[in-house]
């Protein structure tokens, strides 16, 4: 695996702790592997999401065993 590829984790089903680890690792080290869906962008505009607000996201983890990535699905303001 290259320097720009996060390490995969073989675990099924994923525990909450492992899923959080993968998401945090992607956010801190591999932001190019996080995709923003059209839907999440629309909901951010609709719901007035801006800097400084606490938000909640639905995130899909893809291919966590070999080459993790994620897709942001939807968002709401707490």
Physical arrangement of strands within the biggest beta sheet: 1-3-2
Helix percent reads: 25-40%
- Taken from the alpha-carbon principal axes, the silhouette is elongated
Percentage of residues in DSSP E strands = 25-35%
Describe this structure in words.
- The chain is of the alpha+beta class and 78 residues long.
- The protein has a domain at 33-77.
- It contains 2 helices and 3 strands; from the N terminus they run αβαββ.
- It has a 3-stranded mixed beta sheet.
- β2 and β3 (69-77) form a beta hairpin.
- The protein starts with 15 loop residues before the first helix and ends with a strand.
- The model has no long low-confidence stretch (mean pLDDT 91).
Question: How would you briefly describe this protein structure?
Answer:
With 78 residues, this protein is an alpha+beta fold. It has a domain at 33-77.
Main features:
single chain; alpha+beta; 3 strands; 29% helix; elongated; 2 helices
Topology:
Blueprint: H1 16-29, E1 34-36, H2 38-46, E2 55-62, E3 69-77
Parallel strand pairs: 1-3
Antiparallel strand pairs: 2-3
């Amino acid at each position: 695996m290259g320097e720009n590829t996060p390490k995969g984790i073989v675990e099924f089903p994923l525990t909450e702790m492992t899923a959080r680890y993968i998401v945090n690792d992607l956010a801190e080290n591999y932001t190019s592997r996080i995709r923003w869906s059209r839907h999440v962008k629309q909901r951010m505009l609709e719901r007035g999401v801006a800097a400084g607000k606490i938000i909640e996201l639905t995130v899909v983890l893809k291919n966590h065993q070999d080459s993790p990535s994620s897709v942001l699905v939807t968002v709401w303001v707490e």
